[in-house]
């Protein structure tokens, strides 16, 4: 077994979806690996990779947990609700970290930097911007919408067995709706949707509040489409 996250955390999540086809118990163990107390930071941050724990990866452990849970239900006739509950509790901590650290203006539009995604941006987003500038990312915001939706579905699965989880499902769904409204520009503050080109784009915000889309067609603008269930 891998007892050490020697590759990007989001790689591990996608591997688990495939591992579930051949070894459910191992896949569940790997989903929970980075959520254990020796890896998950008390503030809710999940380490990215061994050469830079403080970097940010896309929050995809939720979709991995759902894939594994559903695979076990197909293979064994019953899903492991205790596994799902343990993961959801830890992911709520990670979601709160994103809200507090990567949504600096509280507009449900997120930053994140490099995000571990090679060659999808026109410049190195690991590097800081000049003082006073910020980058609102279409991909980071899309991943967060998907994350909120994943947790909504997890809570709904649990609510079928434990009615106390209904409130968690409502809260997560409300978060998803808020992010979806913001990324489409319905929140009134920041819009990542370019009406002219009909595409999602990153947005640079200057110290004077001036906003400028980065006019590039790339995977950055397609990732918001992942937030579907």
Mean of pLDDT: 89
- The run of helices and strands is HHHHEHHEEEE
**Secondary structure: helix percent:** 40-55%
Judging from the principal axes of the Cα atoms, what is the shape? globular
Poorly predicted runs: 1-6
Q: Tell me how many strands there are.
A: 5
The oligomeric state is: single chain
Q: Any idea what the radius of gyration is?
A: 18 Å
Hey, roughly how much beta strand do the residues contain?
Answer: 5-15%
Strand order of the largest sheet: 1-4-5
Alpha-carbon distance between the termini? Answer: 31 Å
Number of helices: 6
How would you sum up this structure in a few lines?
This protein is mainly α and 229 residues long. It has 6 helices and 5 strands; from the N terminus they run ααααβααββββ. Helix 1 (9-19) packs antiparallel against helix 2 and helix 1 (9-19) packs parallel to helix 3.
Word description of this protein:
This protein is mainly α and 229 residues long. The chain has six helices and five strands. Strands 1-4-5 form a three-stranded antiparallel beta sheet. Helix 1 packs parallel to helix 3. The N terminus is likely disordered.
């Amino acid at each position: 077994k891998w007892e050490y996250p020697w590759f990007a955390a989001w790689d591990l999540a996608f591997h688990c979806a495939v591992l579930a086809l051949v070894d459910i118990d191992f896949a569940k163990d790997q989903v929970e690996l980075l959520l254990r107390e020796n890896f998950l930071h008390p503030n809710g941050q999940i380490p990215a990779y061994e050469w830079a724990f403080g970097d940010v990866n896309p929050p995809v452990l939720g979709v991995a947990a759902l894939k594994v849970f559903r695979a076990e239900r197909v293979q064994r006739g019953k899903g492991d609700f205790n596994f799902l509950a343990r993961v959801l509790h830890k992911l709520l901590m990670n979601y709160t970290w994103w809200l507090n650290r990567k949504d600096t203006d509280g507009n449900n539009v997120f930053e994140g930097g490099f995000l571990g995604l090679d060659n999808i941006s026109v410049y190195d987003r690991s590097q800081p911007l000049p003082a006073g500038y910020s980058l609102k990312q279409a991909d980071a915001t899309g991943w967060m919408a998907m994350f909120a939706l994943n947790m909504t579905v997890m809570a709904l699965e649990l609510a079928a067995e434990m009615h106390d989880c209904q409130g968690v499902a409502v809260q997560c769904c409300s978060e998803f709706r808020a992010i979806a409204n913001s990324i489409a520009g319905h929140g009134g503050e920041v819009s990542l949707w370019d009406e002219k080109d009909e595409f999602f784009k990153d947005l640079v915000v200057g110290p004077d509040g001036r906003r400028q889309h980065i006019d590039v067609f790339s995977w950055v603008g397609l990732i918001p489409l992942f937030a579907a269930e």
